[in-house]
Structures are given as structure tokens and as C-alpha cells.
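Repro case for the chain-ordering regression, as requested:
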Amino acid sequence: MTPVLVTKKISKYFYEPEKFQVLKEIDLTVNRGEFLALVGKSGCGKSTLMYVLSTMDTDYEGELQIAEQTLTGKSQNELSAFRNAHIGFVFQFHYLLPEFTVLQNVMMPALKLGKFSRQEVESKAMQRLKTLGVDEHAHKPSSKLSGGQQQRVAIARALINDPDIIMGDEPTGNLDSYNTQLVFDIFNQLTHEYKQTIIAVTHDEDFASKTDRIVQMSDGRIVG
Amino acid sequence: MAASGLKLSFEIARVHLLSKPKQTIIAMLGVTFGIAMFIALVGLMTGLNDFTEEITMTSSPDIHIYKDVTEPRKTILEELWPNVLVSVHSQKPKNEMTKVRNASRIVEIIRKNSLVRGVAPALSSQVFYNYGPVQLNGTILGVDILQEDKLFDLKSKMKNGRIEELLANREGIIMGSGIAKKLDVKKNDRVVITTPEGYTMTLKVVGIFQMGIGVVDNVRSYANISTVQTILQQDASYITDINIKLKDRHIAKNVAQELQSELNTKAEDWETANATFLTGVIIRNIITYAVSVTLLIVAGFGIYNILNMTIYNKMKDIAILKAMGFAGGDVKSIFIIQSLIIGLVGAVAGLIIGYGLSVAISKAPFNGGDIVSLDHFPVNFDPKFYVIGVVFGIATTAIAGYMPSRKASKIDPIEILRGQ
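-- result from build under test --
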């Protein structure tokens, strides 16, 4: 088992309205191919931890490694490029760019990466959309899709650059039970068939219980 | 990598602009209006300036040499006791002639100067034109008509008759169109002129000229030098003015000063002689640029507002772009590109409309009255102003777009992604 994400004693403070330690010396190792659910009561720091892991939040103490690279102390531009190549995101609200078509949305991170030609990116994006069963909507504006369809497009977008980790902040939080099951099945398939690592913050105990590993947080610490 | 990033930013900017066409067009119209007004205004103003300058210069020399009787001179007391402090109050000019001394020698010296395009001696006199019962005040200018033509292109100003007819006719006169009209004289009519000293002579009108400036056409006539010398009862060396045209009129000031000290006579350059006219040019330029800059600044505020609004509406998009790996600079470039596209398209449209307006103005009928002969507005189509317009328009939009774009680049994605 190779670790894909390692944290060493990550602590974080909020200063508003008064100084408050939201993360307390978190040590976490996530292995490749793991489907991990980050759970806990609201305010326990699970989302805060995920945004630290996402590299978007750099205001913490301790050390973060993803894919054998130490990310602590890197510049914002280096972190942007790292996110582009190594991390895919799925959020509670689908956050597709409304003016662009489904296909354009999926292609965007790959065009930003600039590693492949436009044709290659396009065929890859179509392939991802097909895997997720939304390829017939490829040329529609993304805002014309239903919530469940949009979330599947968002997953396709997260996958486009073959990331080391997919991070989800309540990825099923805004979906009905049918679509929740659909998204869970997709995640499950990705981890077991393609060895995709997934870290998902969730409230949904039912969803969490079916994942490979549950990390329970309470008051800024990992408790189980 | 950087090129593909910029291409992507451009694509996103394009989609943003096209998804809100109304907003985009309104932002562009601000720039278009500013530039179009700038082009039309500057074209008209500089057109008028050039026209008045040209018309002034066609009738006046670059340098004018004459005897200035009001020039301060040394008193006799000072000449007698140069080292004693004397003070003479209320000194009157001497009763001396307005003759330029050694005129023919001066003309020869100046003619040899390589900066000079042409030089013509002349003498002028106040006269009364009598035609029947009508008596009008004016001037008569004794000239070597061929030299004068070299300087002022008289041939093209002739409405009637030819300048050579003056050479053949010792008692001929070429009359300004204004005075001819007032006296109701035609070619080959005779007019009687009287000098202030009382000398009377009958002259034959051999031609009529029109300079296009009322102050000239309404008072001036040309005659041979010898004719005017006769009228004034002066000898053949009597010359009151020497007119010079230079190859480059813009160095007239320096040349005039050199000539004045070299020849020891008064030499006045055209800028000094036409100081009021040049002040008018400066004021017109200030007004033009002030109005245009104001319009463009207003357009700039419009773009600033619209971009600010766009960025506010696109906070979520910006957050997700940053999450998927767009750096702050990429986000900034997306919005700067938007403002530059607005600026560029708006400015080009402004140039086209400005050109159209200029053409329309140049075709509009305008009666210059007696002062200048003008039937429509003179408009300057100098491409320089079109370049200034585009550069200025794009600079304004770039500055107006920079501030909101920088704000967009600093948006913290976590605040927006978590805030829901």
C-alpha cells in the first residue's frame, strides 16, 4: 500500500471572533485507491481539514504531502499548478461554469494543464462523460442539466487530468436518494476498478458507512 | 504552457462577453462614443486651425522687414553725453520716412540665403478709391508682381484677368474682390485714387483677386512699384516693405532675429505678427483634448462598473476556476482580456463612426461670410489622430479593467466554496 497523502501534525487556528484552534495536530495517511469518508459533527473541523488537504488553504502549521511532494510552503502559483494536475474536486453545489457546454466544462482543467492537444482532450472528455452516462448531453449548456446529471459532469471534470486524489465536499449533500446512490456507485467503481483515491467530507452516515474507511473527527482531532 | 493558458483565458473571456451581449455592447458604446467624438472634434478643430493658418500664411510673409518708426531711439542728449544719466520725457517720433534703407542691397543679401524660398520688395500706401461719388479707404501695394506671385501664389487667387497684364500696363491695378464689389467695378473699368497727401491718379483695373480673407480682399490692390512710387511722389529707391518666404516657416523666429541684427532694420516673423491667432489655436486644442479626455474617462468608469458587476456575479465561477488550478494571474488575465476586447472593438467602432462624422461635417454647408471665403467646414483627416484615439481608448479601458481584475485574482476560493 503506497501512501498518496500524508499529513504531519497539522494545526490550524481561527482568529475571528477570537483565537480558536480548529485543527489539533492531525496525523493522517491515505493510501492509494482508498475511498475515505471524513465525518463528524458540524463545526468539528472536517471541512476545514479538507480545504487544508486541498492546498487551497495554506494558513496552517505542520506539513502536507501529496504524491510524495511536500506542499507546505509552496507559492500560490505552484499550488495552483499542482491542484490542476493532481487533485480533482467535487462540491456540494455542482459549480459548473454556466456559460459553457457540458463538454467545455469537462475539458477546461485539461486545457489548462496543456499537456494534450485539443482533440485528445476532447476525446478523453467524451470518454469520461460516457463512463458517467451523461455523454448525450455533451453539447448542451451545463445549466440545462438536472442536479444529478450536473454532479456527474462535475465528477467527469474532476477525473479529466487523472488526478491522484478526488476530494469531495458533501458531494451528495444536494442530491436525492436515487442520485446519491448513483454518485456513491460511481465513486465505489472508481476506487475499486481504477484505484482512484477519494476523500469525501459527508454528513450522510449511510453514505459513509459504505465506504472503505471512515475517519471520524471531533473538536479538531481524529477520534476514529 | 503560458501560451495555452493565455489562449484559454481568451476563450473564457470571449464566452463571458458573448453570454451578456447587451452589457458588452453598452460598455463598448461608451468607448465608441468617446473616440468618435474625439475624432470628429479634433478633426474639425485642427481642420479649422490649419485652414486659418494656411489662409493667414498665403497672404502674409514668413518674415516682414520694414522701418519701425515707433522703435525707441536714442535721444540727442544721450548721443552727446553717453556716460551721463539723462532722462527725456515724452519723446516724439522724428518726422522720417518709412523707407527701408538700401532696400535693393538687402533684397540681394537675403536672396542668397539658403533658407529663403523667395523675397519680394514692396511699398504700400494708404489711398482713397474714388468711383463716381463713392470714396473708400484702402491700401495700394506696389510690387514686382512676378516676385509677389512666387511668394503668395497670386495666379491661383485671380478671379478675373491675369497677373502678366499688370506688367504690360503701367497704370494698371489688380483689385481685391471685396473692394471691387463695393465700388462696383469690373475688369477694364477705371478708378481714381487719392493719397492722403492729395495726389490723384486714374488707374485701370486689369484684374481682380480673391485671397479669401476679408481684411485683405476688402482693402488691398496691387500695382507696379513704379506706379506707387509715382503716387507717393518718391524716387525709384523708395521701398517700405520686404517680404520673405522661407523654405520652412517654423524657423522664422530665429531667422528674423538674425536678419534684424545683421541688417539693422526691423524684421518681424509671422508668429509674432499673428500672436492672437496662435493663442486661438492653443485654446481650441485645449478644449478639444479636455472634452475628449472627459468623454473617455466617463467611458472608463462605465467599463469599471460593468466589470465589477460581472466579477461580483462570477464569484462562484472564479472560485471553481481557482480550485481546478487557475492561478490568480490567469483569473486576472481573463478579466483584463475582457476589458481590452471591449476597448479595442469600441475604439475601432469609434474610429469608423468618428470618420463618418468627420466626412459628414466636411460636407456640411457653412457660410464664412465676408471674413473668410468658406462654403463648408474644413476637416483634418490626419491618421495621427486616429492612432491617438485607439491608443487612448485602449489605455483607458486597460486602466479601468485592471482594478476589478486584480480584485478578481485575489478572491479566496474557500470563502465562496464553503460559504454555501
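Ordering looks correct now. Residues 3-222 of chain A form a domain with the Rossmann fold fold (CATH 3.40.50.300).
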